[in-house]
Amino acid sequence: MLTGSLLNYETSYLCRLYCEKMAGVILENLSTKKLVPICILLMAFSLTCFIIGGKLVPDPVHTQNAIGNWCKRQFVNNTEVKWYPSRGKQPCDRLDGPDDKRISTLRAEDIVFSFQYPLPRDNEEKLMSRWFMYHFAIVNFNIEYKQNNNPGENAKLKLIVSVGYKDDPKSDQWLTLHHEREVDRTLQCAPPSTLKDGYRWECDFIDLFEFGSMPHKQYLVNIRLPPNPQTGDNINIGYLSGIDLVWFAQTGGFTLYFMVMKTVFFAMILPLTIWNYKRVSDLNRPAVFLEKLSLTLAISALLLNLPIDWLTLVIEMKFMLLWSDIRQGLFLTVLLCYWVVFASEHMMDDVKRGQLSSYYKQLSFVMFASALMFVFDICERGIRIMNPFFTLWASATGTKVAKAFLGLAVASAIIYFLTLAVIVIKAIYNIWKKKSQFKFMAKGLQVHYMSIIYRFYFALMFSVVCSILTVAAFAMGQIYESRWRWELDDEVDVDEVGVVDGQHAWDVNLKDFKVTTAFQLGVYGTWNVYVMVMLIFYAPSHKQAALPVDADGNEEDERVELTSLSSGPTTRSRSAAAVSTFSTEDATDETVNLTSGQQVSDQHQAQIHSLSSRPSHLD
Amino acid sequence: MLNPSTLLTPPSSSQGVFAICSCLQMKLCFKYCRTLAQDYDISESYLDTNQISPSNAYSEKQDSSSSLQPRMQYLTKKQRKLAEKNPQSIYAVVDGALLAIRECQHQFEKRLWNCPTQPSNVGGSIFGRILNIGCRETAFIYSIMSAGVAHAIATACSTGRIHTCSCDYRLEQPTDEDWKWGGCSDNVKFGYRFSKQFIDSIEQGEDLRFMVNRQNNEAGRRHVVSETRKECKCHGMSGSCTMKTCWMKLSSFKVIGDRLKEKFDGASKVDAGNGWESTGNRASSSSNRPSRSSSDKNSASYLSNNFENSISSKNRKENDVKKINRNKLNFVPVDESHKIPTKKDMVYFQESPDFCTTSTNSKYKFEGTRGRECNATSMEIDGCQLMCCSRGHETETYIHEKTCRCSFEWCCKVECDVCRETRVRNICK
């Protein structure tokens, strides 16, 4: 009697969970023959992204370190010369750095640091391209240690920055993007490891500007540092031996691959979303929470992939960087929420869930972190659309606020992932525990439920892998790159023509496989594949309606479905065995009962009670 | 006797040019150097006047004075080719030489031999005959010169002065598409390769001296590369480190100088390793040396010709063995407890001359240590005992005028008070 009641309880339990709540999803009903190829195909997608990232795509970011040319400020007819290009037909009056003979005759405000980029390569002036997408620059102060002249703590800087551009490389006319902008920054330096003259202070990078698009061909940045004893600007900065400007832009190759990838995923997810939506809305019941969340996830994935990036090749879209952040942030938020809900729904405990309010504890961390990041981003990148020189990090208060924001966000993220880990472990434990009880079931039923359990297990594991990859991708940047040192291998020989062999020593890659890029695109692909998996496999199955009604009908339906799926004899016999077990009195009784339960899903407690009492009544 | 201060003053640019001629080419080339020096002095005005193509760069010069071609003849063929292929590079080479000389003098200010340079009208190498032997000091000069050139070329690439810096030598002809596709930024590698081709082109022999010189050149360059620092910036979503981009930044040349000085202190005396008949080669090399100072011919080819002659008499088989070993430097430290030198180590094969004897000093155009300051309490090389070659020293007190309580403008102006203090100094007799 005990076994009987347990069996019944189990059956009812599983059905309550899978049949009633999810109303029978495709994952559960799809034949293995069809399931496996779909899984392999999707996995292959994800893997392809990794391989494309590692093998074909160039490094994602293009960067050049331009050393500033010292130019003498000039006046023609008492008007200041506006631009100081370092090369071209009318270059500036170039000084030889701080050791120049003329330097003592000059004043500090008469020195202009000139950066003209991109730098010429292979005997030609290189040009920027719209394919580079965005463009930002930092400056790096080279301050040499001197016994009697060193930078003060948090020295105030006021950079007078002009940014010019040229679209026609042949012309000598620089056009104005920004003229004589005052940019306030602080100079934060740590003393060099060796306190000897000539060694450089370790100064933090100074953010100069960020442009969300790359519409021009050549850029010219002129920076002056006029000292002002009244305000204390540019006073206490030590012995400046030069300024470097490092600019960054996305490489064209990366842009192309990434945009193609987005477009492809968009084209794949869009029909799946519509299909999934139709299936859900065709149900004769309101959609359950997980289904709603799946659709939300799909919509955020569509936003993430929406290929408006192509437009930047034609028109100037300054907001692209902000938009990229927002769409990625939105997608991640929904994805993180989804994981928690998904794992919790498979906890197999008797806690009542099924709506947003049941998850407020776990999700509040995600929401909080996302909100913080959103506000931070609007402040940082949003304002930069108007003023490219703006940064929160420039002022002491701004830095504190920014640090607080990021600190809280990181803390929330950590708490979230710990919570998620607990939920997943609980879910796995519960499944394992329940599995051990299946041996009391009839053989066929056991096989059936085991197969369902395994499939959910797989979905759960995929979620876990996906989340681990996400975390790994975030951690990647920190850990991986520092392992490589910029050094010629001692064994590397240099051949006759002077080509250095063993290029691997120079690049961040493993045997020509760029791990960072691979991760970046691979994780992006995996997210999308995950969304597709959830859209396909968690769409309501058409078979579900038949299952509970009656045993014969169910069997009929199963057979028809299986035949149409052209499943092999093995699957059929297994299904048939499972189904035949269903046609026992017990099962019929159960399923009938569940049909009613399905409609009134709020009455779980009563249901369980009635279900567990029924076997004894039958006896 | 020369005032020590003049010895330690930074060299003028003409000295630097001369250093290129005499150190890099090991060759006397007055005319070229003087013209080049003049070029260098006037270079400020025309250096950056948009000379993208080599023809452009030189046409202007040909109008103004004699053509550059005759002047270039003092460079070896390969150097000439390089300089023509990379307009403006010769000025970076000069910058590099100046940098190297300044650093050499800084590093050796507390040693007997203090990297003295000579006025260009004396003749011979700017460093004197010390380049003709193979001692520790020679090794250092070679290393630091090679490093200086690599450093200066890489710097010139980053300022945009040299237009021919390349992205990637693996591609035959990099196109504009490649630039758009993947970009490039590798200046350090270019500096390394340029220095290698430019400087090693005159050391293309197979005797121990050339091998040692190549080894020391390589050590210098490699230090430029390995002292290059990787700097990274995170710029992922909201500034997170999901995106992290790194670039290479040259160290200040002081750091490289210090590393090379460490290598100088740890340099090992070597002998030729396997497949060598060291005595024969050394004999041939030493017979070659004196002839270069006055030769007007291309020294490298002259030497290699000589070398060809000297080995032609030996049997072929031995020659083949050498060919095989050529790419792999094969030195054996004389002191067996020393490790086999790596590519970053300095080596030498002759003991340093005794800088205390007048005959040596006149031979190497070294002024001696008379009048140099020494440290009375030190037992090291800067101590008065060693520094003054046991001639003794004079102690004198003097009032030192020092700038203090300065307020600096970051580039140009210094406003200081003058502080006076009494100091003691020891000067070699």
Provide a descriptive summary of the structure in words.
Chain B: This is Protein Wnt. The complex is a heterodimer of chains A (619) and B (429). Chain A has 619 residues and is α+β, with helices and mostly antiparallel strands. Among the domains of chain A are: 189 residues, no CATH class; 110 residues; 76 residues. Chain A contains 15 helices and 14 strands. In chain A, the strands form 4 sheets. Chain A has a 6-stranded antiparallel β-sheet with strand order 5-2-6-13-8-9, with no helix packed on it. Chain A has a 4-stranded antiparallel β-sheet with strand order 1-14-7-12. In chain A, strand 8 and strand 9 form a beta hairpin. In chain A, helix 3 runs antiparallel to helix 10. The longest helix of chain A has 42 residues. The N terminus and C terminus of chain A are likely disordered. Chain B has 2 domains: 355 residues, no CATH class; 57 residues, Endo-n-acetylneuraminidase fold. In chain B, the strands form 3 sheets. Chain B has a 3-stranded mixed β-sheet. In chain B, strands 6-8-7 form a 3-stranded antiparallel β-sheet. Chain B has a two-stranded antiparallel ribbon with strand order 1-2. Chain B has 429 residues and is of the alpha+beta class. Chains A and B meet through strand 1, strand 6, strand 7, strand 14 and helix 6 of A and helix 8, helix 9, helix 10, helix 11 and strand 1 of B.
| Total count of domains of chain B | 2
Bin the helical content of chain B.
40-55%
Number of helices of chain B: 17
Helix content of chain A: 40-55%
Strand order of the largest sheet of chain A: 5-2-6-13-8-9
Number of strands of chain A: 14
Q: Compute the gyration radius of chain B: what is it?
A: 24 Å
**Which blocks of ≥5 consecutive residues of chain B have pLDDT under 50?**
1-19, 21-71, 277-327
User: Largest inter-chain interface?
Assistant: A-B, 103 and 84 residues
- What shape does the CA trace of chain B take? globular
Tell me, briefly, the overall form of chain A: elongated
> How many strand units of chain B?
8
Class from secondary-structure proportions of chain B:
alpha+beta
